[in-house]
Design brief:
- Helix content is 31%, strand content 25%.
- By secondary structure, the protein is α/β, with parallel strands linked by helices.
- Strands 15-16-14-13-17-18-22-21 form an eight-stranded mixed beta sheet.
- A hairpin with a 4-residue loop joins strand 4 and strand 5.
- Helix 2 packs parallel to helix 7.
Length: 344
């Protein structure tokens, strides 16, 4: 009987690993917004099929829940309308706006604009293809960002301050734009990769810095956390300004504010109201000297044993309960470890 139970457990673990590898969006929820009349067929059905195959739950959304007609003759029945989507936006890891001539109905739709802005602010992926990037531009999401769109609408993006590239697909942080139906497959692939990284949506992460911080490391860390959907706040031991190693100053808030996690690039003794803590690069040395890692298992680090820590040789990002140590060249691994710490 014990052998049977062990085999069952092994099967569950294998199934979970298989789902993670073959269904990277398992547990994720995506809304695809289409026009009532004139959505571009491939731009809905190609990404939708790919998202479903990747394990996501996909809801089709329109201004009404009556049958919608595509430009090439196919139809789709919306699951919910845009008003409902706005009310339930926090349930979605991504919102995708489908193009086609009908997308023009949303160019100046305030509800749809709010959907786009709210989705992005809460840490979700926002995508748009063909003419639909104009919706994002008019919602204020593309100003100063690289983006693409159907070539005939390029001036509309530029007017709103976007850096129009004309490329088939553009990805900047959690915003993905594509220029038309020929890019549908690549658009879908880019969406899946971006949504799979959403592990920290709804989590507040304080990044703690001190004078002499490395700007490149900070920029990389902020980008990685943003891609994971975290709400990132730059903090110091106290509010004010902090100077980087090159002399540039940045404004910081006090580390005493409440956060779900703190990632230290310095000032490791700053008081932060959180149990989940990550130490990156030189902050590990500071934490060791301060006795914060005594008895903890950490990455291989000079003099770790001297200060009572245990090391895992070869690993670059290690979690021991709710304490994480991470090398500067392994920041891509940090969101997964933070997510694991939250789940315990």
């Amino acid at each position: 009987m014990m052998r049977s139970a062990m085999l069952t457990l092994a099967g569950v673990i294998c199934l979970a690993l298989w789902a993670q590898q073959n269904k990277p969006l398992s547990g994720k929820k995506v809304a695809m917004v289409i026009a009532q009349n004139g959505f571009r067929d491939e731009e809905l059905f190609v990404p939708k099929k790919a998202l479903l195959e990747a394990g996501a739950k996909v809801d089709v959304v329109s201004s009404a829940t009556t049958i919608c007609k595509g430009m090439l003759g196919r139809t789709a029945k919306p699951d919910i309308n845009t008003e409902t989507l706005l009310k339930k936006i926090e349930d979605y890891d991504a919102v995708v706006f489908v193009g086609g001539v009908g997308a023009k109905q949303y160019f100046n739709d305030k509800t749809v604009h709010k959907i786009a802005r709210t989705a992005y602010k809460q840490g979700s992926v926002v995508g748009a293809i063909c003419l639909a990037p104009v919706i994002l531009a008019n919602a204020g999401l593309l100003k100063g960002r690289k983006a693409t769109v159907w070539h005939g609408a390029a001036d509309m993006l530029k007017k709103q301050g976007a850096d129009y590239t004309g490329n088939a697909v553009e990805k900047v942080a959690r915003i993905i734009t594509a220029n038309g139906p020929k890019a549908a497959h690549r658009f879908a692939k880019t969406l899946i990769a971006a949504i799979a990284k959403i592990r920290l949506r709804g989590k507040r992460v304080a990044v703690i810095v001190e004078n002499g911080f490395n700007e490149e490391v900070l920029e990389k860390l902020q980008a990685v956390l943003d891609e994971a959907g975290a709400e990132v706040t730059l903090c110091g031991a106290r509010s004010g300004t902090v100077k980087s190693s090159t002399g540039n100053r940045v404004r910081v808030k006090s580390a005493s504010r409440r956060a779900d996690a703190a990632v230290f690039l310095g000032a490791v003794t700053a008081k932060v109201k959180t149990k989940v803590r990550a130490y990156v690069g030189n902050a590990i040395t500071e934490a060791l000297k301060a006795g914060l890692l005594k008895g903890k298992t950490i990455i291989g680090w000079r003099n770790a044993e001297k200060y009572g820590a245990k090391v895992t040789e070869g690993a670059k990002c290690v979690r021991d309960d709710k304490t994480i140590t991470c090398a500067e060249d392994a920041l891509d691994e940090l969101p997964e470890e933070l997510a694991a710490a939250f789940s315990e």
